[in-house]
Specification:
Elements (H helix, E strand, L loop, with lengths): L5 H5 L5 E15 L3 E7 L7 E6 L17 E10 L7 E12 L14 H5 L9 H23 L3 E2 L5 E2 L11 E2 L9 E2 L2 E2 L10 E3 L4 H11 L1 E9 L12 E10 L3 H22 L1 H10 L4 H10 L3 E4 H9 L17 H11 L4 E7 L15 E9 L3 E8 L4 H10 L8 H8 L5 E7 H9 L20
Parallel strand pairs: 3-5, 6-12, 14-15
Antiparallel strand pairs: 1-2, 1-4, 2-3, 4-5, 7-11, 8-11, 9-10, 12-13, 13-18, 15-16, 16-17, 17-18
Helix pairs in contact: 3-5, 3-6, 5-7
């Protein structure tokens, strides 16, 4: 018999005879002639109540021994509930104890701190909060793919292993197969010619450069996958391994890029509010009571578009003390981004035309020579959630920018080739997937929206 998911049972309009459900026990309580078992299979937030009568042949041997966390399989009928709080319950005709959890099972029926649950990340998906968070992560992934497919984008799988430093910041994880106890050297330096790839290799910080190559062939493409940054930042917003959504569009300028970023964020939030309402309600009740107002504001607002120069002036004239003072030429910090969105405009903001000196080599230099066609999308509660730009399509300008930032051109010969052979204006952006999850759940720590977070000094599980 095929297993029925609890989510489907709870949505039914009619009773159902002879069904099979399997899941993990949240609680068991006994009366004189029955046991009431709250069962969850992970398919939805709500449990379903199972009524197991003492007439079942294994009632004393198995059912009365069932503990929180145990796995069971139940056959029976879906019938209207005789008690309050639920519409349906399952009257068991057979209950099999698949696996008995010991009394040391750490997720007993009480509230646990996020800090404690991070120490048992392999078990925390069984809690209401984290079950909801990771179901929502799955639904957001689907929504992203649907968004791009509906607009004719092609999904590109870009390399995880690379020789390129897309951001030029040097915060990369190196990959090697060399024997670290006997590293080959040439004139005192590590001889990478004897390594697996014959040169230095890294985990990628972005799929952008590869995606650009396909945008200049297929038109509109996107990549969605893991990226890695060896930045020793032990904060609530940073992780060493994280996922990025990176579209690239040919024949698209900065204005088109900003429009796509706004459309994407708003459509995904509307999707979550409509299709993930049950899980979203948990976060709105127990994690962030302002969550629904924030999401509704973002979904319905016109995003403010603001030149960087004007943003700096607004922050300087705020009459508010910031931990990080700003001047023209400095990057915006989270406190500045949240001031713009939450205090000044009360709406999402897109800041554009940043100083060239603080942005990577591939961003298109504006006619003023001082700024580049870059943009960041800032949202309440998070700050920056999207960073992007129009890409520099002029070969001679790109070569000059690489020299200006101290980059060697030789490893990027293929990237320069794309400008040599009929390049066109094109643009793209990167959306931090975990930050999108933080926005839609109200969860304030990136470690709590990644199944198994990788942060400085932590690589458990």
């Amino acid at each position: 018999m095929q297993r029925t998911k609890i989510a489907h049972l709870l949505q039914r309009e009619e009773p159902l005879a002879d069904l099979l459900i399997k899941g993990w026990v949240r609680t068991r309580r006994d009366s004189k002639t029955f046991s009431f078992i709250e069962l969850n299979d992970g398919s939805c937030l709500k449990n379903i109540q199972v009524i197991a009568a003492e007439t079942l042949p294994n009632y004393a041997e198995d059912i009365r021994r069932i503990t929180t966390g145990s796995a069971v399989a139940v056959r029976g009928d879906l019938v209207p509930s005789q008690g309050g709080g639920q519409r349906w319950e399952v009257k068991a005709s057979q209950l099999v104890l698949v696996s008995l959890a010991p009394d040391t099972f750490p997720l007993q029926k009480k509230r646990h701190t996020d800090e404690f649950l991070r120490t048992i990340a392999h078990l925390r998906p069984r809690t209401n909060k984290y079950g909801a968070a990771f179901r929502l992560r799955s639904e957001l992934s689907y929504a992203i793919h649907r968004f791009f497919r509906d607009r004719g984008f092609r999904y590109i799988h870009t390399p995880v292993i690379t020789a390129s430093d897309c951001e030029g910041a040097g915060e990369l994880f190196r990959i090697t197969t060399l024997d670290l106890k006997d590293v080959p050297r040439n004139q005192g330096k590590v001889d990478t010619s004897q390594d697996f790839f014959g040169r230095e290799a890294y985990l990628t910080v972005s799929g952008q450069l590869s995606a650009e190559m396909f945008a200049l062939a297929l038109g509109d493409v996107y990549t969605f996958g893991p990226t890695f940054r060896a930045e020793n930042s032990n904060t609530r917003r940073h992780a060493a391994e994280f996922w990025m959504v990176e579209p690239e569009m040919a024949f698209c300028d900065l204005a088109g890029n900003m429009a796509l970023a706004q459309d994407m964020i708003q459509e995904i939030i509307r999707f979550v509010m409509k299709d993930c309402a049950e899980d979203l309600e948990l976060f709105a009740r127990f994690v962030d009571k302002t969550l629904m107002g924030t999401l509704e504001n973002i979904a319905s607002s016109d995003f403010v578009r603001l030149p960087y120069t004007q943003a700096i002036e607004i922050i300087k004239q705020a009459g508010q003390r910031f931990e990080y003072p700003v001047e023209w030429g400095t990057d915006l910090q989270t406190e500045h981004e949240r001031f713009l969105t939450e205090t000044h405009f009360h709406a999402p903001v897109i800041v554009y035309d940043y100083p060239r000196a603080i942005k990577p080599f591939y961003m298109r230099v504006n006619d003023d020579g001082r700024t580049v066609a870059a943009m960041d999308v800032l949202v309440p509660g998070i700050g920056e959630i999207v960073g992007g730009s129009q890409r520099e399509e002029r070969l001679e300008v790109l070569e000059a920018r690489m020299a200006e930032t101290g980059m060697r051109a030789e490893p990027y010969w293929w990237y320069l080739d794309s400008r040599r052979y009929a390049s066109v204006e094109h643009s793209g952006f990167g959306l931090g997937f975990e930050r999108l999850l933080m926005l839609t759940t109200g969860i304030s720590n990136i470690r709590d929206v990644i199944p198994f977070p990788r942060t400085p000094g932590s690589i458990d599980f």
